DNA sequence: ATTGAAAGCAAGTAACTACTTGCATTCACG
DNA sequence: CGTGAATGCAAGTAGTTACTTGCTTTCAAT
């Protein structure tokens, strides 16, 4: 029984992954059961025997994708903000880029299939919460301007990450910075916006060396 | 002949507008010719007689929408940056919000129908160019930090506008600021990021009064 | 009044959709 | 060996899709 079930899980898993790939390419309406079966290398009937219906298959697919979400974390007590945020930002970008096609499709189909929102929202909204907490701690410790509008800056930062992650591959001209430099530059702009970096601020100027403009140190 | 043609233009226009509405709701695959004909109040055959095919109809629709693009402009010589940018930002947001559903759908279908990109790109990319020029002028005049990373700040600002315009109605929890305050706050964060606003800067502090934090003036 | 273009209407086509049914095949386990 | 669950295969169903055809109606211009 157990070995038989492992074989069943195998085809189930193959169908789920194939469904994700086909959905990422063609969306819900375009992801026909026939295409998914071919992509999975299984018979189309097995698809209905395993999941019952196309809708149930996609529900299972979304849940299985939502299950595996190892989001990056920020330290509780801020150290080198530029460094810590750049690493975190790069990990966050990589994480969201993994699902960019699926996110794009789910986003476009949000009005018709709102349940898809959970998958694409959890990542950015958790990231926003973490970043807001981190920035507030920076303010508390005196490393950021306490008059800064942290919620708005965080919202703009997350929007930018989201936009970069899901747009860069299809609209490259909209992103002037190369992919490898982007995290550090995004973080620099963010830190300047909350008064934690820049010419007239208390932030240690050497941090800027990690980014791009070295004249600040002079 | 001319009057007859005006009647023909009428149905043609009705079909085009109906196609835009149905496409905004259901996407390309979901926007069936039957639905469009019903929405336009015309016979389905008239649709094919006028445009030949569904693909040709949508091509015409995208072109007719790309034609009407009165984007807001920024003054050549910067005056009150906070005020000017807030007005511009509000107009830009309103402009993009007009097409939010269509943009969402086109964005999700970019891989399958790349020609849709032109419609949704022209707005943001023109806005980015205008904002970059404005910010650079601010730097030149000495109203902004010349060490600021203007291209990145502009890219993040446009991403944030784009994200707000097309996401706020479907993911309201992702936008903490009320719709009417958003432009001023976005602009404040942007100006701080390029060193044109805030505690330790040369920007006239009264500008901040238009925004949200009044303690800066004290 | 006649003409002619534009539109409606009913019907049909071929392909595709999700989904079903019945039967044959495989193959690990007892 | 044989039992039984998982899978494959062939065929079919009912509905939808884009698109066509043939005919009738409307109605402004001559």
Largest interface between protein chains, with number of residues from each side: A-B, 63 and 62 residues
What is the general shape of chain A?
elongated
Distance between the termini of chain A: 71 Å
Largest sheet of chain A, in brief, is: none
Count of DSSP-assigned helices of chain A: 10
Number of strands of chain A: 0
Q: Order of SSEs of chain A, N→C?
A: HHHHHHHHHH
Task: Tell me what you see in this structure.
2 copies of one chain form a homodimer. Chain A has 218 residues and is mainly alpha-helical. Chain A contains 10 helices and no strands. The first copy, chain A, is elongated and about 65 Å long. The N terminus and C terminus of chain A are likely disordered. At the A-B interface, helix 1, helix 6, helix 7, helix 8 and helix 9 of A face helix 1, helix 6, helix 7, helix 8 and helix 9 of B. The structure holds a DNA duplex (30 and 30 nucleotides).
